[in-house]
Amino acid sequence: MQASDFTKVPPLASRETGQQQSGLSKLNTGTLCDPEGDCFVRVRKRDLERLCTEVMQLREFLPKVINGDFLDALNKARSLEKFREQSQQEHQQLKQECLHLYSRLDAAQSECQREKEEKLVLRERLWESREQLQQQAEFCTGLGASTCTVLWSASRREEAVRDILADGKLEPFLSVAGQTLESFVKSLDEEEKPQQQNYNSHEHQFVLALAGVITNLAAVTCGRDFISSSAHVLLDTIMQLLGLMKSGVFPKLKVLMLMALYNVSLSINGLTYISESPALLPLICTLLEDRDIEVCLQALRLLQSLLVEGDILAQISPDLQHTIPVERIRQLSSSRHSALKQAAQELLEDIKCFTKTGHTTTEKEQ
């Protein structure tokens, strides 16, 4: 075998560095080495040519061997690998967010527990405040009932009424009294049976005493004149409340308010003012149907007081004759209650006189 049949092939590292051949030295074994220690091997030229041919053939036929499905699978594998990496990143991000949410949840639960404890404390304080407020309300109601009861008794004396008027505090007192009566009447349970109502409670006694004071003030001339001229709101409130209260509900309060209107009607100014109310006569007609005898009696007296000054009433209400419930008054004139029977009979006589006076006036005008 001749030396020309062999080709010197450098190692891969030497070929990548440009196949530097300077400084090579021969070894006694027939192997060539450079000063850095990289060695060469001898390969037959035919083998090298065969290897190059095979490499070229592989380069030519390899794309044909590897079909499209394999390439698609390879691309899918690469895509899946990329998707896996993205999924891992997203998973890591979601894990961090989950940990953050857990942290916020713990903080929110702690805050919620703290608020629950504060709420329990506030609820206990609220109950304590309600109890204290209820106690104070009961105390104030009891004090008001006692005070107004004393004032009710004192106002029976004419000198006491004059002293009250001289003090100059009667107008605000009547304003507060009217508001109190209105609040009480509107709070009454209209469906509650009369026998189930506790008329002995401090609240009932308080309101009853207020109405009694108003009645006693109107029973004195100076008090009556003051109410007739300066307490129109109170008079309107009383008439309104009498219309709101159902039959059989708190008759004592109805009686006192009717007595107050009766006392006011004894004054010309008072009679003129209450007669101008279009709701007065329908109110009296309704009260005459009340189940309580004393309420009917006071309604009769109020109507009788209106008929005494027939001229004023005729000017205000020309159709008065058709408005008066004569049939109901006749029924009451047959009542077993002597005072109610007598008042109804007297009222029937007054109605006859009023009717005759009306006919005479009409004939003179003709």
From TrEMBL:
**Region of interest (Disordered), ranges:** 1-27
Coiled coil is among the record's keywords:
yes
Q: Which InterPro entries does the record match to this protein?
A: ARM-like, ARM-type_fold, HSF2BP
Which GO CC annotations does the UniProt entry carry? cytosol
The residue ranges crossing the membrane are none
Q: Which residues form a coiled coil?
A: 77-125
Stretches of Polar residues bias are at 16-27
**Keywords in alphabetical order:** Coiled coil
Protein's recorded name: Heat shock factor 2-binding protein
